[in-house]
């Protein structure tokens, strides 16, 4: 059924919700996991055009992805990671298309800010613009 699952990683406690579910799904289907975190701070959004060095936040995100990779690979899963930079929805869609995933899994938080209501959330933008199924789980 699923061969390659993109898991949107936030570097927050919400990750545990989506990872717990997706690990079970990957175990059942034998799917590979592609863990993607999108750094979206100032340094990340302007990394290339301003030729910036990696910020502490970017370094922390990279280390976090590596820890997740090592844990899941140690449990027998085939895992790849990608640290993207920029607008989260745009980057998740780009990676999903480039990496030919057949499922995107991400956690949601509900509307917490006025900006979410006006501009839409990352999850809403992703689910409307991709051609593969999107699994959304509310973060615990």
Topology of helices and strands:
Layout: E1 4-9, H1 14-29, E2 32-39, H2 42-45, H3 56-74, E3 79-85, H4 88-98, E4 103-108, H5 114-119, H6 122-129, E5 134-138
Parallel strand pairs: 1-2, 1-4, 2-3, 4-5
Helix pairs in contact: 4-6
- Helices and strands, in order, run as EHEHHEHEHHE
Proportion of beta-strand residues = 15-25%
Give the % helix: 40-55%
Distance between the termini: 27 Å
- Mean pLDDT figure: 85
Number of helices: 6
What quaternary form is this?
single chain
Name the overall outline. Answer: globular
Low-confidence stretches: 114-119
Strand order of the largest sheet: 3-2-1-4-5
Structural class: alpha/beta
Tell me what you see in this structure:
There is one protein chain. This protein is an alpha/beta fold and 140 residues long. It has six helices and five strands; from the N terminus they run βαβααβαβααβ. The protein has helices spanning 14-29, 42-45, 56-74, 88-98, 114-119, 122-129, and strands at 4-9, 32-39, 79-85, 103-108, 134-138. It has a five-stranded parallel beta sheet, sandwiched between helices. Strand 1 (4-9), helix 1 (14-29) and strand 2 (32-39) form a beta-alpha-beta unit. Helix 4 packs parallel to helix 6. The longest helix has 19 residues, at 56-74. It is globular and about 40 Å long. The relative contact order is 0.22. Mean pLDDT is 85; it is low at 114-119.
């Amino acid at each position: 059924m699923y061969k390659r699952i993109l898991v949107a990683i936030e570097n927050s406690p919400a990750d545990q919700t989506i990872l717990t579910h997706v690990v079970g799904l990957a175990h059942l289907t034998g799917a590979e996991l592609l863990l993607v975190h999108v750094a979206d701070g100032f340094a990340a959004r302007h990394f290339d055009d301003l030729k910036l060095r990696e910020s502490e936040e970017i370094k922390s995100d990279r280390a976090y992805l590596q820890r997740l990779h090592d844990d899941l690979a140690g449990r027998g899963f085939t895992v790849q990671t990608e640290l993207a930079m920029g607008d989260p929805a745009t980057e998740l869609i780009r990676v999903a298309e480039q990496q030919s995933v057949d499922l995107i899994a991400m956690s949601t938080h509900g509307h917490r800010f006025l900006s979410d209501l006006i501009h839409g959330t990352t999850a809403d933008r992703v689910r409307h613009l991709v051609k593969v199924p999107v699994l959304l789980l509310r973060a615990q």
